[in-house]
Amino acid sequence: MSERTLAVIPARGGSKRVPNKNVREIGGKPLIAYTIEQAAETDFLDRTIVSTEDEEIRATAEEYGGEVPFDRPAELATDDVTATDVVEHAVEWFTTRDRYYDEVCLLMPTAPFREPQDIDGAIQRLRQADASSVITVTEFEVPPQWAVTMGGDKLEPYFDENPWEKTKRQTQDFPTLSHPNGAVFVSETEAFVEAGDFYTNETIGYEMPRRRSLDIDDQFDLEVAQALYSWRGI
After folding, report:
1. Does 79 share its domain with 95?
2. Number of domains the chain contains
3. Are residues 157 and 61 in the same domain?
4. Judging by DSSP bridges, how do beta strands 100-106 and 2-10 pair with one another?
């Protein structure tokens, strides 16, 4: 049986930087609930699943309407396993059960400020553009040209130009550069399987504003998210 778009929410239980991150509360709800609810409000996702090996995450996901059709294998719940590995497993799991999807979408649960329109916008861009995958991006907050490294006791420029000259320039004097924000990855399934990644030879970006692009990676990010939800009154 074939459907258009499958979304996978990867959520393992062994987060080290923020223990139990996926079920930590923000604005009165567990983190993973935001992504489940965003996916449910989209127009273009046909099926959304949660991939986890953790019983608490499974129970929490199901409480908020998430579908958890299988237990993620233990070998896919270690520190060195990538989200791409998890999506590959999900695609294969459905394929062996004669369920096929034209597109596959990765939704990280660490992006609670993403909105349904961002998911639909990225999918629509994929369908309308001459591309095989789309990744959401946002502008750098600080020009990356200012990057330095700690070379012993001295600051060393990361790039080959003189950073001290660059600090004299206004931010608007630099070209606009963006980075993947971790909110939405979507690809034609065939291209994803062939490349083994959402980055293919035909990947384009879908821009999201900074206010919706927070990616929770550590305790500080979690505290920022909690403060923003409180301040915005969401």
Report:
1. yes
2. 2
3. no
4. parallel
Handedness of CA 102, 206, 50, 79 (dihedral sign): positive
**Would the pTM count as exceeding 0.90?**
yes
- On whether both 195 and 110 belong to a single domain, the answer is yes
pLDDT (tens digit, 9 = 90+) per residue, 215-226? 999 999 999 999
What's the rounded Cα separation, in Å, for the pair 48 and 198? 17
Q: How many angstroms separate the CA atoms of 37 and 52, rounded?
A: 17
The distance from CA 21 to its chain's CA centroid, rounded to whole angstroms, is 15
Tell me, yes or no, whether 234 lies in a domain: no
Range of the domain at 163: 141-176
User: What is the DSSP secondary structure assignment for residue 23, as one 8-state letter?
Assistant: G
CB-CB neighbours of 1 under 10 Å:
8
Residue 171: which residues within 8 A CB-CB, separation 6 or more?
143
